[in-house]
Design a protein that fits this description.
Layout (H helix, E strand, L loop, with lengths): L2 H9 L5 E3 L2 E7 L2 E9 L10 H13 L2 E5 L6 H9 L17 E3 L2 E3 L9 E4 L11 E8 L3 E2 L4 E3 H7 L2 H10 L1 E6 L8 H4 L5 H11 L2 E4 L5 E7 L2 E3 L6 E3 L3 H4 L6 H11 L6 E5 L7 H14 L10 E5 L3 E5 L2 E2 L3 E6 L1
Parallel strand pairs: 3-4
Antiparallel strand pairs: 1-2, 2-3, 4-17, 5-6, 6-20, 7-18, 8-17, 8-20, 9-19, 10-18, 11-13, 11-16, 12-13, 14-15
Length: about 325
């Protein structure tokens, strides 16, 4: 039995126990994701015991996700302090692909897409060569309906994808093409957190990104990236890219055709090709999306929840919702 199967067998039906005033168990009856650590007395999240912190860190490297529930997290600053307490510097949202608001240094809003839209499962910034290794979500206000953050084990995704698709993606790599524009997508000033072209070019050069400025000052970039990687600690293969988000087939058909008619495929806000520049068939991306749908699990948010994920082992997304919803994010 391989290592992933061992993990799933050992942890899928983890018995509930009490440790240091908290209930420890798998949140879901039929899946190891996420491990639940629930305070029985509503203690401050800063008072999480050292043994439970150690348990959470160990669970991140095996199961890949931990949900802390019924702890007091009074303010976004408390959330930041907790995330930073694990000893990894919190990062900024550089070279982002979706709109977010900065709460303060190291803490951001979750992706600000309209409530009726789904955000497909993905590993954060896996469309780049530099990504966060851990990510924290804090639910300040759960939505009235929906709004779950579905998660999926990236090892399972890797194993469930058709081997022929998997091998072609790994062999060829992926070429992400982006055209920045305030009219159709994010402006480059927001993506790179600067209005200085020199700083943009320095960043691109450091990350192996090809760039081009148009006559009217708009920016286009192209970057070759991975389709899958080995986890640096366990050496397990994980599916790690955002081809199914960037590909033109992610658009609704009418919008897709309207954009092509308006600007041409080469000027779409974002698209992805195989690393040799050849197109990826729509059906291939549909098959990958089907694997995510088959492997994901979700749960309703509760106010105060903190979800910790190993960003390489676990993909995340967002379900449509109604009512107010406020979830903030930190990355390391």
């Amino acid at each position: 039995m391989n290592q992933l199967a061992d993990v799933l067998t050992a942890e899928a039906f983890r018995p509930s126990r009490v440790q240091d005033g908290c209930t420890v168990a798998s949140l879901l009856d039929d899946h190891p994701l996420p491990l639940l650590i629930a305070s029985q007395e509503g203690q401050s999240i800063h008072n999480l015991s050292e043994s439970l912190r150690t348990l959470a860190i160990e669970a991140l490297s095996t199961t890949g996700g931990v949900l802390l529930r019924n702890f007091k997290v009074p303010t976004p600053l408390d959330f930041k302090r907790f995330a930073a307490s694990f000893g990894m510097p919190l990062g900024t949202y550089e070279f982002g692909s979706t709109p977010r608001s900065k709460v303060f240094a190291g803490v951001y809003s979750s992706t600000e897409y309209p409530a009726h839209q789904s955000i497909p499962l993905h590993n954060e910034q896996s469309y780049t060569r530099q990504w966060p290794s851990r990510i924290w979500f804090h639910c300040m206000t759960p939505s009235q309906t929906g709004g779950e953050t579905p998660i999926a084990d990236s090892r399972q995704v890797y194993q469930a994808i058709d081997p022929a698709i998997r091998e072609e993606f790994i062999a060829k790599g992926l070429l992400y093409v982006r055209n920045y524009s305030s009219a159709l997508d994010l402006p480059w000033q927001q993506v790179f957190n600067t209005d200085d072209r020199v700083k943009v070019e320095q960043y691109c050069q450091s990350q192996g990104i090809d760039w081009n400025w148009s006559k009217d000052g708009e920016l286009s970039t192209r970057q070759l990236c991975q389709a899958a990687i080995r986890h640096p600690a366990s050496q397990e293969w994980v599916w790690f890219n955002q081809a199914h988000l960037f590909h033109i087939s992610a658009m609704e058909q009418n919008l897709r055709q309207a954009l092509i008619d308006a600007v041409g495929e080469a000027q779409l806000p974002r698209n992805v090709y195989f690393g040799d520049g050849t197109p990826i068939p729509d059906a291939t991306l549909d098959a990958i999306r089907a694997v995510y749908a088959q492997t994901c699990v979700d749960f309703p948010w509760q106010a105060g929840d903190v979800l910790m994920l190993d960003n390489l082992l676990v993909a995340h997304g967002r379900n449509p919702f109604s009512g107010d919803r406020k979830v903030i994010v930190a990355m390391a």
